[in-house]
Amino acid sequence: MHGSPLYTPEWEAYVLDLSVLRAQLIERQEITAAARIGGSPDPAVNVTLQMALARAKKLGVPKDNVEAALKRASGQDAKDALQEVTYEALGPGGVPCLMYVYYAQSSMHDDPDTSNRECMTDNPTRTVMRVKEMLNRYGGRLAEVKYLFESKAIFRVEPKKGQTFDEVFELALEGGAEDVVQDEDGPEIEITAPSSLIHSLNSLLAPRTNLSHSEVVQIPTNPPEAPLDDEVEKLLEKLEEKLEENADCVRLWRGA
């Protein structure tokens, strides 16, 4: 019995090529998102972006595509500049959720059947329909919940050789940090500050500590004290998975 003609070396090579192209596409999107999440299109002060650029290099993303992603994130090209849109929702069990999506300005009036794969999403109408569909599937709905979150800048650093926690603590406070906590199991230190300080604290911490991560996050102002019901937790996890599979949705924050 002959094998299927689909499973030939040529077909396998074709599928592999498609996988590589998809990975490169996702990484180009990640570069643009990292520039926004980390607070700057300058990798010298944005560690999140530095890591995204390193992954892009490893995946072989062409230099022109990397530069285009950075240009788009910085808004230098008015046609392709990104606009951030936040969808607010009550997820399964009434858990507040925020979903971040980036649109290219040039796509805001595109025909629904066209596709600009260089963008986070090319069609706002289609994206909101997808979000609604996924929310409905798992017992959620669009609703105003942003007031239940607070925007903060988070930094993760380790002391340089010979540097103490107290020295990092004082440096962070000097830069306007609100909270500085050392990991119980290692040398990593987490610093929390107002989101407006993402640029200035990046610039302060990067040369004077081993800064490994920085980003703007959404923290629930009144998280529930009791753990979620197991069934609700499972539904939330499924919703998160589906949203992460959707390239239009850059980030999701939960209130529990």
Automatic annotation (TrEMBL):
GO cellular component, one term: mitochondrion
Domain TACO1/YebC-like N-terminal, residue spans: 29-76
Gene3D superfamilies: 1.10.10.200, 3.30.70.980
InterPro entries membership: Integrase-like_N, TACO1_YebC-like_2nd/3rd_dom, TACO1_YebC_N, Transcrip_reg_TACO1-like, Transcrip_reg_TACO1-like_dom3, YebC-like
Residue span(s) of domain TACO1/YebC-like second and third: 118-253
Lineage top rank: taxon: Eukaryota
Family the entry assigns: Belongs to the TACO1 family.
Listed name of the protein: YebC-like protein
UniProt organism field: Calocera cornea HHB12733
